[in-house]
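thread: overnight batch results

M.L. [08:02]
morning all. the overnight job finished for the chain we discussed friday. pasting input first so we're all looking at the same thing
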Amino acid sequence: MGDRASSRSLTARNAWVRCTVPGPMADGPTSSRGRKALYRRPDDASSLRVNRRQFLARAAATGALVALGGPAARAIGPLQATTVLRIRYKGNWSVNRGAAEALHEELRLRTSVAMADAPLTVDLTSPRMYDSLFAILAGDEAFTLNDDERGALARWLGLGGVLLFDNAGRTAPSDGFDKSARRELQKMFPQETLGRVSPDHVLYRTFYRLDYPAGRAIHKPYVEGLSIGKRFAAILDGNDLTGALARDEVGRFTNVPTPGGENQREMAIRFGVNLMLYASCLHYKDDQVHLDYLLHSRKWKIRPPQ
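M.L. [08:03]
and the structure it wrote out:
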């Protein structure tokens, strides 16, 4: 009876799914006004893609409990506030300090996503990976994951997580980091291949309408993605997104984005927000009602740097 009651309770708590929808004032750089939350019932066919989070909450909790042998496992899903995960690994994982904190704060200011008090720095094998659907693995040199890390990451990605491999090379993308990321993905998902993310993909309009993936630099006008089913589970960025967000101990940005300066930093922040919203809600912005709104009501944009 206890298990049955717990199951009913979990179902009741997941009766509504919440995703952020921009309101008329959403284009302001730091405004938290003008946003409304979209609620959909699980039995509504149009919300099935959003409701993946309910399924993943149960799947991740079950799998983690089996693996860890105890009740300390956490689940991906709407039962708790989410956060930005910063992956710690054997390598220069701490490049661009303060970037995760900056993105976390921008998400709190700009969206109605329920954010935890602070971002988390986690090991790939930690159950705290299941505190969020979005993680950043940044670096500027070659790295290698061990078998346990690779297996844990593959499971998290397979259950619905979205990982950004952020190449923090300074004058150009780090060749060592790029090759390492591709090698690790190939080992985890040998049947899948990386490909360029189309500029028409929902990733560029989950919250803001964007034309390109900005970072501290504009080394490449595109990102690459590895698909699992119909979603991108891993994104490879060569423009040092975290470099545009990095801050010192007193909160000052430590890098000047080139060639676009502060406008480019704003676009980098927007791309980071879009990544988090994509991980949380996937393709719901492909619905016609949102497409019409985006086409007719959200035309103000910052032009790409020349």
